[in-house]
Automatic annotation (TrEMBL):
Binding-site list for Mg(2+) 1: E84, D103, L105
Cofactors demanded by this protein: Mg(2+)
InterPro entries: FBPase_C_dom, FBPase_class-1, FBPase_N, FBPtase
Domain Fructose-1-6-bisphosphatase class 1 C-terminal stretches: 186-319
Gene from which the chain derives: fbp
A single BP term in Gene Ontology: fructose 1,6-bisphosphate metabolic process
Record-stated family: Belongs to the FBPase class 1 family.
Lineage, broadest ranks: Bacteria, Pseudomonadati, Pseudomonadota, Gammaproteobacteria, Alteromonadales
Protein name: Fructose-1,6-bisphosphatase class 1
Length: 320
């Protein structure tokens, strides 16, 4: 079995990207450790603060954000950082080659029930000049690498550097990420979907009609029965889709008219879309390919429909 270090050497990843990926994995091991200690370390529960998106921050959101911010700022390859938990971009090293966007602890409401959470990251090339939000506003197609670390029964890293998708499992004895899945391919067809059904009445007609047909199963136009799963952490739901196929969606809804979309483009939708496309799946908003969106704001939100490509296409037909 290959270690992560051996894998990167074999993939001929540039020395600077190699350095950055090691910084990210080193920090994720420390996060894994903090998450595992849970109540023993007094890190569960909420703080009294809200993030820029008006969500109450969990203690672990703040702790993991600080861990990543500190280690990334010390990495000479990093020019700037954008995080779900930071209002604005954070400048790191003027000559850094990369911009790193991250969700330090996706699904953090799962923390208090000891369920799946993870760190999602996206790496973009930096541009010359001063670090501003503008630097980050590049389509997801520009990502140099993207991935996530899932803190579950085992801690797993899923990574793409634009050359396929690879999964690594953290060995508790050696504390090394070991390559356990190479060239992950998502089956084109599926009988499984993931969506928060409690929002059904707030969806657009296209999504309502599509899900209605899935629920009709073999008595409806789809002619087969579907199963449903919802982990409530995108990182867990996407990991299942990459592992055995499926369709995952957080679609447009009118529950809160001021917030028609839930998932964030820069550090949730884009990195996951790159992994999904690299595994031969598809990722769309319903009307636009996620990786082609020209961002206008670092914390912007988008509708997401991703997964097995034939099933995403089936869903897109309802969107016209
Ligand atoms: O980061 C947002 C997020 O927590 C995702 O990880 C997850 O897919 C979704 O929100 C869960 O939303 P809800 O609470 O509506 O089920
Ligand atoms: Mn998240």
């Amino acid at each position: 079995m290959q270690t992560f270090t051996q894998f990167l050497a074999e993939m001929s990843v540039s020395p600077s990207l190699n350095q950055l990926l090691h910084t990210l994995t080193k920090t994720s091991k420390e996060i894994s450790h903090a998450v595992q200690h849970g109540a023993l370390a007094g890190v569960l529960g909420a703080t009294e603060q809200e993030n820029v998106q008006g969500e109450t921050q969990k203690k672990l959101d703040v702790i993991t954000n600080d861990m990543l911010k500190t280690t990334l700022a010390e990495d000479s390859t990093v020019k700037g950082i954008a995080s779900e938990e930071e209002d604005d971009v954070v400048a790191a090293n003027t000559d850094g080659e990369f911009l790193v966007s991250f969700d330090p602890l996706d699904g953090s409401s799962n923390i208090d029930i000891n369920s799946l959470v993870g760190t999602i990251f996206s790496i973009l090339p930096a541009k010359d000049g001063e670090l501003t939000q503008q630097q980050f506003l590049q389509p997801g197609r520009n990502q140099v690498a993207a991935g996530y670390v899932l803190y579950g029964p085992s801690t797993m890293l899923t990574l793409t550097t634009g050359n396929g998708v690879f999964m690594f499992t953290l060995c508790p004895e050696s504390n090394e990420f070991m390559l356990t899945e190479s060239n992950v391919i998502i089956p084109a067809d599926t009988k499984e979907f993931a969506i928060n059904m409690s929002n059904q009445r707030f969806w657009q007609p296209a999504m309502q009609n599509y899900i209605d047909d899935l629920l009709k199963g073999d008595t409806g136009v789809r002619g087969k029965n579907f199963n449903m799963r919802w982990i409530a952490a995108m990182v867990g739901d996407v990991h299942r889709v990459l592992s055995r196929g499926g369709l995952f969606s957080y679609p447009t809804d009118t529950k809160n008219p001021a917030k028609p979309f839930k998932l964030r483009l820069m550090y949730e939708a884009n990195p996951m879309a790159l992994l999904i496309e690299q595994a031969q799946g598809k990722a769309s908003t319903g009307y636009e390919t996620i990786l082609d969106i020209e961002p206008t704001e670092i914390h912007q939100r988008v509708a997401v429909i991703l997964g097995s490509r034939n099933e995403v296409d089936a869903c897109l037909k309802y969107h016209g």
